[in-house]
Write a structure and sequence with these properties.
By secondary structure, the chain is of the alpha/beta class. It is about 35% helix and about 15% strand. The strands form 4 sheets. The protein has a 5-stranded mixed beta sheet, with helices on one face. A 4-stranded parallel beta sheet has the order 8-7-6-9, sandwiched between helices. Strands 10-11 form a two-stranded antiparallel ribbon. α12 links the parallel β7 and β8. It is globular, with a radius of gyration of 22 Å. The C terminus is likely disordered.
């Protein structure tokens, strides 16, 4: 596929979708699937056939729609309406014009003007409710791989690094190290080959941010890794993902095959001289492998055990070679930065922390689910405005951030 063919495929798929009378998105993330989303999707598909609406109405899966407490969730593309708590018996009413069916659906309608939705700012999760994670054409229609095409045809590797540095993007894995600086360190190494590793070893109980991104938008992560590979001079990438994330692994495997088939990964990407492969390494569920040197050891087939640093992975990492390690959310930000520019990204967030952050809300809170908010958003806003506060009959005591490796934030500090 050439860059021109990519543009043409984007246009054709956009036109195909616009010609439909309706596109029904069923959340097919792990949370909604556990609540019966597969049965809802099947019931809607059968109803489309029963009414002879093939070619006019399309039912497809999509990534996490956020409000997991109301799952399974279904979104209508034509109006943006969102419905929750449907089952295989009530879902077909979405395709009915009968007044009694419309009335029955009101109890399932979700108010998308509520704080849970309007106080979010989505970059990493922008494609949730827009693309089917199992269709490459959907990702391309939403602008997918355009950032990679721009970088390969209009930018030098050092210009890509400069853009990431100027954006102020920091690693989303916890340490907050400046992403562009880390890329620059790897690119400056005189040794080759160099490697890219995506850390998807998300081990904190209650955390499902990376899992949801991989399940709902795998091509975004692959594109981010390819951009990093071009920038630092790497031709091989690895995604280290927890074995418990079976659905994420399945969709990543499918996405890699799709991208390779269309010359978006592999040799001569977009008919240029750049080549970059991505392979998956499945972890055995060791919490310690979230630490980068332990992760590297595990990828090498050794016991996942941290080693003393320095040397750091940018100097001597995988098999003793320069290695760039970022987590899922970090890579997922990269395509948007290259497409929209560093100035756009740096206008979001705070003076020292740019962009947005994805959070998983879990525990005794009304609105459990997945959210994305600008850096600098207070815990009070997250917990009480977006999260809806604690259920009736309970009193707020503390919020634990970061899983077992984080700390408890007392109520007095909620505005910090």
């Amino acid at each position: 596929m050439t860059p021109e063919e990519l543009d043409q495929l984007q246009l054709e798929e956009q036109q195909r979708q616009q010609a439909l009378e309706e596109r029904i998105y069923c959340c097919t993330a792990a949370s909604c699937l556990s609540a019966g989303a597969a049965r809802v999707k099947q019931a809607l598909t059968e109803e489309v056939k029963a009414q002879g609406l093939e070619g006019k109405v399309e039912v497809c899966g999509t990534g996490c729609l956020g409000l997991c407490s109301r799952g399974p969730l279904v979104k209508l593309a034509s109006t943006g309406e969102l419905f929750g708590g449907l089952d295989e018996k009530t879902a077909p009413a979405l395709l009915s014009k009968a007044p009694e069916d419309k009335t029955a659906l009101e109890a399932c309608r979700i108010d998308t003007s509520a704080p849970f939705f309007i106080k979010q700012h989505k970059i990493v999760l922008a494609n949730s409710g827009r693309v089917d994670p199992e269709r490459l054409a959907d990702y391309i229609a939403a602008g997918g791989y355009q950032a990679l095409a721009r970088a390969l045809t209009e930018m030098k590797p050092q210009e890509v690094i400069a853009e990431i540095k100027a954006s102020g993007l920091r690693g989303r894995g916890g340490a907050g190290y400046p992403t562009g600086l880390k890329w620059e360190l790897v690119a400056r190494q005189p040794v080759s080959p160099r490697y890219i590793i995506c850390n998807a070893d998300e081990g904190d109980p209650g955390a499902f941010m990376d899992r949801s991104v991989l399940e709902g938008d795998p091509h975004r992560v692959l594109e981010g890794m390819a951009l990093a590979g071009y920038a630092v001079g790497a031709q091989q990438g690895y995604i280290y993902v927890r074995g418990e994330y079976a659905l994420a692994i399945e969709r990543l495997q499918a996405a890699i095959k799709q991208a390779e088939r269309e010359k978006l990964l592999g040799n001569r990407i977009l008919e240029t001289s750049f080549q970059f492969r991505v392979d998956i390494r499945v972890g055995a569920g060791a919490f310690v492998c979230g630490e980068e040197t332990a992760l590297i050891a595990s990828v090498e087939g050794k016991r996942g055990q941290p080693r003393q640093r320095p040397p750091y992975p940018p100097e001597r990492g995988l098999w003793g070679k320069p290695t760039l390690i970022n987590n899922v959310e970090t890579f997922a930000n990269v395509p948007a930065i290259i497409l929209n520019g560093a100035k756009w990204f740096s206008s979001i967030g705070t003076a020292s922390s740019k962009g947005t952050k994805v959070f998983a809300l879990a525990g005794r809170i009304r609105n459990t689910g997945l959210i994305e908010v600008p850096m600098g958003t207070s815990l009070r806003t997250i917990l009480f405005d977006i999260g809806g506060g604690v259920p009736e009959g309970s009193n707020f005591k503390a919020a634990q951030t970061g899983g077992p490796s984080g700390g408890c934030i007392p109520a007095a500090h909620l505005d910090t």
